[in-house]
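Dear support,

Our group has been running a series of protein-ligand predictions, and this particular one with zinc ion is the one our PI (initials K.S.) wants archived with full inputs and outputs. We had some confusion internally about which version of the output was final, so please treat the block below as the authoritative record. The input we submitted was:
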Amino acid sequence: MQLLTADHVFLDRRFAPGCAVLIGDDGRIAGVGPVAELEMLPEAAGATRRDFPGHALLPGCINSHTHSFQVLLRGNGDNARNFRDWVDGHLYPLVERLDERAIAAAALLAYAEMALSGTTTVGEFFYVHHGRNGSGGGNRHAEAVIDSARRLGIRIALLRTMYDLGSKPGQASFRESVDDAAANTRALHEACAGDDLVAVRPAPHSLHGASEPMIRAAAEIAGEIGAPFHIHLAEQEGDLPFALEKYGVSPLRALDRMGALSELTAIVHGIWLDEGERQLLADRGGALVYNPLTNMALGDGVARIPDLLKRGVSVALGTDANNRLNLFDEMRAVEYLQRVTALEMGIVPGAAPASRGSALPLFELGSQCGARALGIESGRLEPGLWGDVIAISLDDPSLWPGAFTGGDDLLNAVVYSMVAQTAVRHSWVAGRPLVVDGRLANLTLDEIREELERALA
Ligand SMILES: [Zn+2]
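Confirmed final output from the archive:
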């Protein structure tokens, strides 16, 4: 049992002074509130008290969509001519060079950067099941990625991709039969069932990567385990004619016709949904995972986030293929990208219920909405949820002067100006240290660099 105190604690959707978080030995939050009240609780007797003066405590960020191996495209992916050239000329050639060691080392690098900028849960949409020289097959690569997360101590939801279409050489690394993909996904889910820090979810890749039987199989598994499945949908304008030709309807309607659109569906991107589809997503209770910086980088377009929020769709955030793996950057980009086309400000907060005119909705997209999209019990500082917490230093100048007063000024500074890589000083996952004094608790960056260099040699 440990009692974490700080100058400000984010609870009940705002920063409050003089409060603390009590985390049980089971890794779950046992209480939040004023320090004196928590200390009176019988379960707090004997708790180790840790004071963080000059800090604020928040729920850790939840990065709901990433492909960690794509961190290896740094230095070699940004001068593509268009999305197709990026995929065919950069992404697939990289995939053909990968093996288990490179996949594991890339995950270490990506997750380390996420951890150091305040992420405590990663949603890894993983699809490179086969690799160079016969590496991988079955769940070996997925398990290597999970192992990297375990070594760092970060929580992972492994979105195990199910992919059976495509004839390009790079796609051979992804493909499995429907039966194999379903069996492997179930087996991985079962193998990780006893690990509090690991969740496994089905992820049919997309309409162009997964056949209708594959998508149905994924939806069936999601129903069995009572957790969401993830699918890329309507990312590029060309996804519309593809769906029309193959299914006779637009992408989300195609999913709905398959019986694969429900409260267990999380669609990734959703940029090219028409108005009827946006209402359909709301009506069916599905979630959306949004990746604004990647959408900018790949020239995908601008999703109608304010409209989706107004209709009641839960929107989570991911770094996807972005070179920088910092979820606070994504929160800010959600709003800024809307401003480019709306020619107004305050658009996302204005569209979200109960925003109090602050950056609160943006912060919640990157925290509690991520927990919903991944089906994990985290994202808020609330009794019963996992003790996934970050401590930011109020001495970091990127938080000044908002840090002087706390409250909404501090929250606005966290979302709109904080340099997370320097401000995030500590973090815990299920109460266990992930970041200590601005460094990884369980590995060093030198060790990660050595592994990466060896793997890529
Ligand atoms: Zn993606």
